[in-house]
Amino acid sequence: MHNFDQANIAKARIEKTTEIAKSFGAASRSYDVSARLQRYSGKHLMSWLPDDTDLTVVDLGCGTGFFTDILASQYQQVIGLDVSTKMLSFAKQSRSKDIFWLEGDANSIPLQSNSVDLIYSNLMIQWLDPLDSAIKEILRVLKPGGLFLFSTLTDGTLFELKSSWKQVDDDQHVIDFKTESMLETLLNTDVSTLIKQKNNPISLEYENVLHLARELKGLGANKVHDRKNKGLSGKTKWQKMCTAYQDFQEPNGVYPASYHVFSGLVKLNP
Ligand SMILES: C[S@@+](CC[C@H](N)C(=O)[O-])C[C@H]1O[C@@H](n2cnc3c(N)ncnc32)[C@H](O)[C@@H]1O
Q1: How far is the CA of 20 from the centre of ligand 1 (A)?
Q2: Which of 86, 94, 244, 256 could form a disulfide with 164 if both were Cys (CB 3.0 to 4.6 A apart)?
Q3: 101 forms bridges with which residues in the sheet?
Q4: Superfamily, domain 3-157+174-204+260-268
C-alpha cells in the first residue's frame, strides 16, 4: 500500500475516533442513568477477574469510571483510559483518588509494551475499526501471560432498529457488529488464546422507540460516522421508522430491543 493511502486511512480513523469521543463526551453526565446494559455486562465480567491483587490493570474505554472504581478496590495499580476528555473529567471528580486517569486512543495506547498484567474493557471494542490492528495494540501492552478481559456486542444486536430503518432508507443508522466467529478468529492466534467465552442474548424493554433512542444517545451510541446522508433523516423518516418498529411491539405494549453480549477472556501466549 502507498504511503499516501496509509496516511488517508490513518486520517479517516482519527476523524472517526474524534467523532466517537465527542459523542460520548456529550453523554458523560447522563451516561450513568442510561447504562443498564453496561452495568449488566460489566458485572458479569467481574466474575472472571483473576484473584491476584498485585497487578497493574487498565480499564480500556473506562467511560465514567464506574468499573474502574471497583477494579481499584481490588488491584494495586489501576489506570482508567478513555478517548473522551469529558468522560475522564467526570470520572476524576467522582471516583477513587488512587486511580490514574489517562486520555488516549485504544488504537494507539500511550503505554509501554509488556507493561500491563490485565486489560479490562467493558462494551468498548465494538467501536474500534479496524478491530484487528486494535487487538494487536491491546496485546502489545500486555506482559507475557497477561490477560485481556472484555465484553462487546455481536451481530444481531439492535436488529429490530436496523430492520425498521431498512424499511425507510439505505443509510447506516446502527454500527456493524462482528460475528462470534470473527472474534474467535481474531483472538485465537499464535499470539493469543481465547480461554473463556460466552455469548448472552438479552432483550431490553422500552416504553416507545423514543425511549430506546434516548438510551442509545445517553450511551453515546447514537452516531455512525459512515452514514451517507447525514441530516436527511428528518421527522418524516423518523416517524416511518417508528411505524415499522411497531411490528416488534409486544402484546403488553412494550418495545423490545435485542443485544448480543459477548464476553471473552484472552491470554497472551507465553
Ligand atoms: C459504552 S462506553 C463504556 C464505558 C465503560 N467501560 C462502562 O462500562 O461504563 C464506551 C467508552 O469507550 C470510549 N471509547 C470509544 N472509542 C475509544 C477509543 N478508540 N479509545 C479509547 N476509548 C474509547 C468512549 O469514550 C466511552 O467512554
Answers
A1: 9
A2: 244
A3: 80
A4: Vaccinia Virus protein VP39 (3.40.50.150)
Closest ligand 1 atom, residue 39 Cα: 8
Supply the angle between the helices 235-245 and 209-218 in degrees, to the nearest 10.
Answer: 110
Index of the ligand 1 atom closest to the CA of residue 106: 20
Rama region for 61: left / alpha / beta (φ>0; ψ in -120 to 50; rest): left
Low-confidence ranges of the chain (pLDDT < 70): 1-9, 24-25, 27-34, 218, 220-233
User: Smallest Cα–Cα separation from 58: which of 90, 82, 30, 93?
Assistant: 82
Residues near ligand 1 with C-beta < 6 Å?
Answer: 17, 20-21, 24, 35, 38, 42, 61-63, 66-67, 82-84, 87, 105-107, 122-124, 127-128, 219
HSE, CB side, 13 Å, CA atoms: give it for residue 256: 13
CA of 66, closest atom in ligand 1: 9
Encode pLDDT of 38-81 as tens digits: 999 999 999 999 999 999 999 999 999 999 999 999 999 999 99
Q: What is the pLDDT of residues 16-31, one digit of tens each?
A: 787 777 776 676 666 6
Nearest protein CA to atom 17 of ligand 1, as residue: 83
130 preceded by a cis bond (ω within 30 of 0): yes
What are the cell numbers at 9? 486511512
CA 181 – ligand 1 centroid, Å:
23
pLDDT at position 18 is: 79
pLDDT more than 70, % of the chain: 86
Q: In angstroms, what is the span from residue 83 Cα to ligand 1's centroid? A: 7
- Please identify, by atom number, the ligand 1 atom nearest to the C-alpha of residue 134: 19
